[in-house]
């Protein structure tokens, strides 16, 4: 208990000290700023934000090796901080061209927040640059489901879709599979997905620091709440979900469905949010409805299959959906891995190995597939 109290005290003192340093940094050159932040880290070596900001400064001065060290240190100290994770992923891909590490980091971000548009666009840009056109299309299409006005995704889908296709049609169009041979990645410092490279961390703002609200007259007549369209409700719900306010997002999405019960994206996102809350029966109802309303939407179908497999252990039903999706998108890495996982669970090791080897043919750096194959080989040796 005492140790925890001391750590909190150090954090409070360190934050106050660092804020003063940041105020001074605006008036000095980069080299002088580097010295100030390094001196601060001698006293507070585990202050993640300072490591992130130091990495940004090293990047600006062209010292990529030290920038990498401090990006990784910031991420290690605060692994849930999205800013640090995105900076590290961007740096992996843009500076080092470590495609596999960048993809792995961004996928981890999406596991925690399926509504993160920056991560979706970044994965779309990476997929496009390494020749994974179908995967790029899926990521950018998901962005447009979440933000219909997103210009980066619109421009990318125009490159991927036939000239006459609309942004909506591009979301569900079934295109022929791309070549298995990836194109050589290019440096993408000017790519829209990486235009904020790299992000200086913003300080956490707690409710206690906000100004007190003015008193409210309980007897004052209140104006009726304006009626909002389904599109307005959906956009606000996504903003709430991105901010971690899942309960508020659910309220708005359910309100949206009272206006438009056939809004497939709202059903899908309610399924995601309810699953994260552990309310799997409600999650299933909404995922099934989204899949019914848009049977050609791979994202909705895959979300339903994932739920059936992970939460309900309905292996055959999930496998049937995965197989149908794989027939339409034979190079979809996530679907191939899902099929391999189901095959492994039901004891069909040969089929599991086939699909994992297929993944590694398409994406040799895939850590999940590598680990699963290694585990299968070790289990096979142990059984001899």
List the helices and strands and how they pair.
Layout: H1 2-25, H2 30-43, H3 48-60, H4 64-77, H5 82-94, H6 99-112, H7 117-129, H8 133-146, H9 151-160, H10 167-172, H11 230-242, H12 246-259, H13 264-277, H14 280-293, H15 298-310, H16 315-328, H17 333-345, H18 349-362, H19 367-383
Helix pairs in contact: 1-2, 2-3, 3-4, 4-5, 5-6, 6-7, 7-8, 8-9, 11-12, 12-13, 13-14, 14-15, 15-16, 16-17, 17-18, 18-19
Task: Walk me through this protein's architecture.
- The protein is mainly α.
- The chain has 3 domains: 2-174, Alpha Horseshoe (Serine Threonine Protein Phosphatase 5, Tetratricopeptide repeat); 227-313, Alpha Horseshoe (Serine Threonine Protein Phosphatase 5, Tetratricopeptide repeat), CATH 1.25.40; 330-384, no CATH class.
- Helices cover 68% and strands 0% of the residues.
- The protein contains 19 helices and no strands.
- Helix 1 runs antiparallel to helix 2 (30-43), helix 11 packs antiparallel against helix 12 and helix 16 runs antiparallel to helix 17.
- The chain is globular, with a radius of gyration of 24 Å.
- The N and C termini lie far apart (50 Å).
Please summarize what this structure is.
By secondary structure, this protein is mainly α. The protein has 19 helices and no strands.
Keywords:
about 375 residues, mainly alpha, Serine Threonine Protein Phosphatase 5, Tetratricopeptide repeat, 3 domains
Contiguous helical run count: 19
Indicate the proportion of strand residues.
under 5%
CATH architecture of the largest domain: Alpha Horseshoe
Radius of gyration (Å) = 24 Å
* Fraction of residues in helix: 55-70%
What's the total number of strands? 0
What is the makeup of the main sheet?
Answer: none
Number of separate structural domains = 3
**CATH class term of the largest domain:** Mainly Alpha
Uncertain runs with pLDDT below 50, 5 residues or more?
163-197, 204-223
Structural class: mainly alpha
Mean pLDDT: 80
């Amino acid at each position: 208990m005492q140790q925890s109290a001391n750590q909190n005290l150090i954090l409070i003192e360190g934050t106050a000290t660092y804020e003063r340093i940041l105020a001074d940094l605006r008036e000095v050159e980069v080299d002088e700023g580097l010295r100030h932040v390094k001196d601060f880290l001698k006293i507070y070596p585990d202050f993640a934000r300072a490591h992130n900001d130091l990495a940004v400064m090293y990047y600006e001065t062209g010292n990529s090796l030290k920038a990498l060290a401090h990006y990784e240190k910031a991420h290690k100290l605060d692994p849930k901080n999205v800013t640090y994770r995105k900076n590290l992923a961007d740096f992996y891909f843009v500076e080092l061209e470590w495609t596999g590490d960048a993809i792995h980091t961004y996928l981890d971000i999406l596991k925690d927040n399926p509504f993160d548009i920056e991560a979706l666009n970044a994965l779309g840009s990476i997929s496009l640059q390494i020749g994974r056109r179908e995967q790029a299309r899926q990521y950018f299409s998901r962005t447009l489901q979440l933000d219909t006005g997103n210009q980066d995704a619109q421009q990318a889908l125009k490159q991927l879709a036939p000239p006459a296709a609309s942004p909506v049609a591009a979301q569900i169009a079934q295109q022929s599979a791309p070549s298995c041979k990836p194109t050589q990645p290019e440096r993408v410092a000017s790519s829209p997905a990486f235009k904020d490279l790299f992000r200086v961390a913003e300080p956490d703002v707690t409710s206690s620091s906000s100004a007190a609200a003015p008193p409210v007259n309980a007897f004052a007549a209140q104006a009726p709440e304006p009626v909002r369209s389904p599109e307005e409700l959906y956009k606000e719900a996504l903003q709430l979900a991105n901010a971690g306010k899942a309960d508020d997002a659910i309220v708005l999405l359910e309100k949206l469905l009272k206006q438009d019960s056939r809004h497939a994206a709202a059903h899908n996102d309610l399924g995601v949010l309810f699953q994260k809350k552990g309310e799997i029966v409600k999650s299933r109802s909404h995922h099934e409805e989204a899949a019914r309303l848009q049977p050609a939407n791979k994202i909705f179908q895959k979300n339903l299959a994932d739920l059936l497999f992970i939460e309900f252990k309905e292996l055959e039903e999930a496998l049937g959906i995965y197989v149908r999706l794989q027939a339409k998108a034979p190079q979809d890495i996530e679907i191939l891995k899902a099929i391999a996982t189901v095959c492994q669970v039901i004891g069909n090791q040969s089929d599991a190995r086939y699909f994992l080897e297929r993944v590694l043919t398409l994406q040799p750096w895939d850590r999940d597939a590598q680990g699963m194959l290694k585990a299968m080989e070790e289990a096979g040796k142990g059984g001899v």
